[in-house]
Amino acid sequence: MEEDATYICDSCGEEIVVPIDVTAGRQQEYVEDCPVCCHPNVIYVAAEDDGSWHLDSESES
Ligand SMILES: [Zn+2]
Predict the structure, then answer these.
(1) How far is the CA of 14 from the centre of ligand 1 (A)?
(2) Which of 10, 23, 28, 30 fits 59 for a cystine, CB–CB 3.0-4.6 Å?
(3) What's the CA gap between 33 and 26, in Å, rounded?
(4) How do residues 21-61 score in pLDDT, each as one tens digit?
(5) Where are the domains positioned within the chain?
């Protein structure tokens, strides 16, 4: 089962849609290169109580 969520790239400001692997847990953290500007971002995934997913991102320096 997969769901989508979005984050804002810290580097280029674009909204990026990423699939969430719901089997990987309610708290996830991984590094993904922005598909727009190729800047690596650390993505923090958290499941909300209402079943939605919240993403935070920060630039990986
Ligand atoms: Zn970007």
Answers:
(1) 6
(2) 10
(3) 22
(4) 999 999 999 999 999 999 999 999 999 999 889 999 999 97
(5) 2-59
